[in-house]
Write a sequence for this structure.
């Protein structure tokens, strides 16, 4: 397949394109959707064939015998991430937002604090607040244009009411791939404050050349409080299948999570399981390698163009396909630079404040789209901020 193919997603019940006018005022006929974190590419043929096989068979009953599915996950984690897992550790949730909510439900009580290193993926705070827990925002400092950890400051913030910390690794929206020392620091922080550590690693396959993702499961001394979350959905652009994996090695943590799954009657849909089994394969791996190379090209095009506009800074992307652009040096109010992007450039983007403390001067751009669209968006941004040049 060619990642350059432009596929019209309008009028397909696509949140990214069909809702951008209602939510952002960006006209559907000439706007560019760069907000929701899904890609404008078709999944690999091996995934498409799995769906065709289902429809050719034509019966959509309950899914049974998940051994191939579990073995595929086990194979992928071993071959792509050098991470040995046992199939008995795997729970399949209705996506990883559901997985996050299930962790909050299983390991905390109403009123407990849940720590987030902000700015960070906005759905975390939504599910924490909706569950009647308290979001504890630990703002990350920016040093030399990248996010870093500040454990001394965060230690001082803790009150003892916190019961969980959620890490986004690789980081969304900043695109950081955390180093081993940083991950060890997070593990030590969790131990110091007796926190369950939930590591959301949904972007672990989308790492730019020159960077290496380290699974939190590889960090020493954390397994008794660690919950790992992974999925095929971001990697293969099958988010609509709503499947994710919560992988828990510790038996006590696993028992608590399993009890809540049972109590809520949760089980996965068969489409997601067939698609994931097909994706986690040698064919799927080859497609991901091609995808990452293409995304890296998009990253270079986007960063070069955006960083050439005075006052705009695109944070260096080490992973994900989500560019995090700082407009602070324009001297404009948030309303003004957002208006220029949405009304003048006609680009729908995610607003920085939704990601928590530290996000006010930022907008998030999804660059997982054909390169011609990225180039068009860049040209529109240059025009919209032309008076600064």
């Amino acid at each position: 397949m060619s990642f350059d193919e432009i596929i019209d997603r309008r009028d397909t019940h696509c949140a990214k394109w069909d809702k951008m006018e209602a939510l952002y005022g960006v006209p559907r006929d000439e706007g560019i959707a760069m907000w929701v974190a899904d890609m404008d590419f078709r999944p690999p043929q091996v995934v498409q064939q799995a769906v065709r096989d289902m429809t050719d068979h034509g019966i959509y009953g309950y899914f049974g015998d998940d051994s191939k599915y579990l073995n595929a996950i086990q194979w992928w984690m071993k071959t792509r991430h050098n991470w040995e897992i046992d199939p008995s550790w795997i729970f399949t949730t209705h996506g990883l937002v559901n997985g996050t909510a299930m962790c909050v439900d299983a390991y905390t009580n109403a009123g407990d604090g849940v720590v987030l290193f902000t700015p960070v993926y906005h759905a975390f705070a939504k599910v924490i607040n909706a569950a009647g827990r308290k979001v504890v925002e630990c703002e990350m400092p920016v040093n030399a244009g990248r996010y870093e950890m500040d454990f001394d400051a965060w230690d001082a913030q803790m009150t003892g009411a916190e019961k969980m910390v959620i890490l986004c690794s690789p980081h969304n929206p900043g695109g950081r791939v955390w180093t081993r020392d940083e991950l060890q620091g997070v593990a030590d922080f969790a131990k110091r404050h007796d926190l369950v550590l939930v590591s959301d690693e949904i972007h672990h396959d989308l790492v730019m050349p020159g960077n290496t993702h380290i699974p939190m499961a590889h960090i020493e001394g954390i397994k008794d409080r660690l919950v790992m979350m992974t999925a095929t959905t971001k990697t293969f652009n099958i988010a609509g299948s709503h499947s994710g994996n919560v992988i828990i090695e510790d038996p006590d943590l696993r028992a608590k999570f399993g009890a809540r799954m049972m109590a809520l009657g949760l089980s996965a849909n068969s489409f997601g399981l067939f698609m994931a089994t097909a994706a986690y394969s040698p064919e799927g791996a080859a497609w991901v390698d091609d995808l990452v190379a293409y995304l890296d090209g998009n990253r270079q095009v986007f960063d070069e163009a955006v960083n050439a506009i005075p006052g705009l800074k695109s944070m260096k992307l080490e992973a994900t396909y989500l560019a995090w652009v700082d407009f602070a040096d324009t001297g404009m109010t948030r309303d003004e630079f957002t208006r220029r992007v949405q009304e003048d450039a006609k680009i729908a983007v995610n607003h920085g404040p939704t990601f928590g403390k530290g996000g006010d001067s930022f907008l998030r751009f999804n660059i997982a789209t054909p390169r011609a669209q990225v180039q068009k968006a860049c040209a529109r941004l240059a025009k919209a901020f032309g008076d600064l040049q």
Summary: The CA atoms of residues 48 and 275 lie 8 Å apart. The chain has 14 helices and 15 strands.
